[in-house]
Amino acid sequence: MGRLAVRGLSKVYGKRDAPNSITALRDVSFEVPNHQFCAILGHSGCGKTTLLNIAAGFEQPTAGVVLVDDVPIREPGWQNTMIFQDYALFPWMSVYQNIVFGLEMKGWPKHKRNGITHHYIDLVGLEGFADTYPHQLSGGMRQRVAIARALAVEPRLLLMDEPFAALDAQNRSFMQDELVRIWQREPKTVVLVTHSIDEAIKLSDCIAVMTRRPGRVKEFIQVDLPRPRDEDDSAYLKLKRHLRNLIHDETGDR
To answer: How far apart are CA 11 and CA 28, in angstroms?
Structure first.
């Protein structure tokens, strides 16, 4: 389960047709099959994060709807979890406490919470760090905690808002590989917001390329490349050029 459908989604901040209103999204529609990985790619200000916030239930659309398994998303919940760029961990809680928090909110019994939490600590490669606090971890390790916390509640939809943007290039590439490994072990429907063309190709089964504001889907592309993705492969390079042209067309710059 976890089929995502975005249908006729629009978002206007302020009163419609008012001089100071801002249309962030206009008539956005696309679908992501169950357990596929979708990237939302576009310039800053094109409505990528707004779309993600609506899918998370943090904001309400002006028009249209986001559905998971034909059920509209109206409010935040464990069924659709978000991973943020700044990790959003509780600094006063240990790795274990951060990950188990969502399970406690779901009211799961202690023995079940303990087993699930340790499973995800192991899955994301944090064995031996259960009692460590966020300030004692590197950026990559903190993002691993955020991923484990999001997965532990067994969401149908995993939303990621530029989760690796704060990492250096080497750690970012490593964490992308780790995310693919984790996703292949325990598949979820994932929607990732990114500015990076390479990140979108490396991770995704499909890519929604957004126009400048008001954000619309300029092109929805299926990525039929085998994993792991080879950045020197001719098909990879051809797709990269196509995506770069789509993005640069929005500025009139090549």
So the answer is: 10
